[in-house]
């Protein structure tokens, strides 16, 4: 396993949820972490709270100049780049009758295209350090929920990308993996305007029995899975389910 204390990691969407938990977890293990996000107040506060091992940059992964800026900051902060955790994304839930080309293209750009282009730009630095890329999938790729198609298909695309990209850049020494979370309380639904904090918590609480372990997960547990993929030197092309057994399809 790679030693975290020698690693420089860029985490997109690091101002809240899984991204924030991942930044905190990896920095606690000694990694030099760079976080980015669209909301300066959020990423600044998280980085300040973590301390000197974490730096921040206000950046939008869908913007080409911002992608260059976040990579440059990570390389400067960590003396190179060992891992990219491509976490930033958005939610789009709508039934078939409400789909529009604009909304579908926006969520594909946010969740798939931006991460692909960021990976492309980060690749020379990752190759130099025999590093890795981790994408965030979703339980929606194996459990079918009506109205979730726009979001689910973007996550399905990412899970396919993990396998294809791993095959393509593995010979260059770069590993690619993905984590597939079960139900975890984050801000993604709230940011999309679908629910408020209380509604999100109440909705997820009703899904505890969809997990064979009897409860929803935590962002810290997802961060543990991300850490494994970042450090595991002989694992690539895999989607790691961190879902409390939700993917088994059993409702108790």
Automatic annotation (TrEMBL):
One Pfam family assigned to this protein is adh_short_C2
Under InterPro entries, the record lists: KR_dom, NAD(P)-bd_dom_sf, Sc_DH/Rdtase_CS, SDR_fam
Q: Which SMART domains match?
A: PKS_KR
List the CDD domains hit by this protein, alphabetically: SDR_c
User: Which segments constitute the Ketoreductase domain?
Assistant: 7-188
Its name, as the record gives it, is: Unannotated protein
């Amino acid at each position: 396993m790679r030693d975290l204390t020698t690693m420089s990691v860029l985490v997109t969407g690091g101002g809240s949820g899984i991204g924030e938990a991942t930044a905190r977890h990896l920095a606690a293990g000694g990694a030099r972490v760079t976080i980015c996000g669209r909301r300066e107040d959020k990423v600044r506060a998280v980085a300040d709270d973590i301390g000197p091992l974490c730096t921040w940059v206000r950046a939008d992964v869908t913007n080409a100049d911002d992608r260059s800026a976040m990579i440059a900051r990570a390389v400067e902060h960590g003396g190179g780049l060992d891992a990219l955790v491509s976490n930033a994304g958005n939610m789009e839930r709508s039934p078939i009758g409400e789909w529009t080309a604009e909304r579908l293209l926006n969520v594909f750009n946010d969740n798939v295209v931006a991460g692909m282009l960021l990976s492309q730009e980060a690749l020379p630095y990752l190759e130099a350090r025999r590093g890795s890329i981790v994408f965030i999938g979703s339980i929606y790729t194996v459990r079918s929920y009506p109205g979730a198609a726009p979001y689910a298909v973007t996550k399905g695309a990412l899970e396919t990308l993990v396998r294809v990209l791993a095959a393509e850049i593995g010979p260059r020494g770069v590993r690619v993996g993905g984590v597939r979370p079960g139900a975890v309380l984050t801000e993604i639904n709230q940011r999309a305007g679908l629910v408020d904090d209380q509604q999100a918590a109440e909705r997820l609480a009703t899904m505890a029995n969809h997990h064979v372990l009897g409860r929803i997960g935590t962002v810290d547990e997802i961060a543990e899975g991300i850490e494994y993929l970042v450090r595991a030197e002989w694992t690539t092309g895999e989607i790691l389910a961190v879902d409390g057994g939700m993917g088994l399809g059993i409702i108790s």
